[in-house]
Amino acid sequence: MARHWYEEQARRRGPRPPRVPAEASISRRQQLVALLELRAMDFDELREALRMSVRGLDEALGHVEKSLKHTGQELVVDPAVCSTCGFVFTGREQRHFHPPGRCPRCRGERIEAPRFSIRG
Asked: What angle do helix axes 54-69 and 28-38 make, rounded to 10 degrees?
C-alpha cells in the first residue's frame, strides 16, 4: 500500500513519458524538436516531459513551427476533439496549441488534447 496519496496517484496514472535531460548545450526548443522527432505526443505529455508552463509551451510550439519551415520540415498538429460530441477544433482564429477549456457545441469539458509530431 502507498504511504502517501501522491504515490497512489502516480501509480494509477501509469508510466510517465520519457524526460529529456536538461543539458546546458540544448535549449528547451531543441529538446522539444528532439522529442517530436521521436514520436507524436500530446500537449500534456510535452508539458510534463519538458517541465514547462502552458504559456511557455504554447510559445515554444509557435516558434518551432516557424523555424521548421526553413528546414523543410513541418509541425503536424492533430487538433483537439471533444470526447462528448466529437466536435473537432480546427480553424481557430489564432494559432493556439493548448487544448480549449470547453466545447462550443455541447459545452462539455472532456476535451482530448491536440497531438504534435514533426514530418519531413
From this structure: 70
The answer to whether the beta carbons of residues 22 and 52 sit under 8 Å apart is: no
Structural domain harbouring 84: 27-119
Is 9 inside any structural domain? no
How does pLDDT run across 14-50, given as a tens digit for each residue?
666 666 565 556 888 999 999 999 999 999 999 999 9
Number of domains in the chain: 1
Nearest to 76 by CA among 42, 44, 45, 49: 42
pLDDT tens digits, one per residue of 62-82: 999 999 988 999 999 998 999
Show the cell assigned to 72: 523543410
Residue 50 lies in a domain: yes
State the helix-helix crossing angle for 43-50 and 28-38, rounded to 10 degrees: 130
16 found inside a domain: no
